Fold this protein.
Amino acid sequence: MRFASYETKGRPGLALQAGTGWRGLAEGDAGFPGTLQTLIERGALADGAARLASAPEIDLDDVTLLPPLSHPEKIVCVGLNYRDHSAESGFAQPDFPTLFGRFNSSLIAHGVPILRPRLSDQLDYEGELVAIIGKTARNVTEAEALDHVAGYSIFNDASIRDYQFKAPQWTPGKNFDATGAFGPCFVTADALPPGCEGLTLTTRLNGQVVQQAPVGDMVFPVATLISILSSFLTLRPGDLIVTGTPSGVGLARKPPLWMKPGDVCEVEIDGIGLLSNPVHDEA
Ligand code: MG
């Protein structure tokens, strides 16, 4: 099942892909099943899909697409999770995941401009797989971990490199407004291979491939990440795990390749979709 979150006339809506088109309902419409967040919390994705299957057809171009989830309680990001990227970034490969947080104030939907801030021109792309938690997870084993995933989507962890490395903690450079592109859709885990192993992630800047790697190259795969995270915190339905980026980032190039106004950055994972965002200057 493939869902898209949207807004129409100030009301949140949820769409389900049906054949080549979409069917959707917004809050206030008869039969509206709730937002994706509420369906995940209630473990009711199949029920929501059943209701949307008989909803009116909608054109996603006629509504405002939102990130699949706009206000996750936690957005846990993983750094240095592909060996080639760790090497190109000048880091020894750590034997424990490098974890940092993003706040939901940085999230934007598919099609919404990634903003180059006034403070810096070092705006870099990072194409990533994102896992969305479906069931509360605390102290789960790797073998149990994937049972706690509701589904997957795509993320561009756009990073302001000079602010990322002003101090040992990366938080500022990973939290500028309008740098966390997320979407366009949410695909349920049952429609994808376990942990998305076997899928390929590709990032294009203005049509040129700048990153391409199998998701299976992750040092800490999704199940391992959930097991480790759940050993010290409680993962809740709707939490995001942004799983890290492969090699090819702009920072590692000579000269560096920064995103600039007028660019278009796409992140594609086969079987999940294509996340595309233009780049604008902050007003
Ligand atoms: Mg990243």
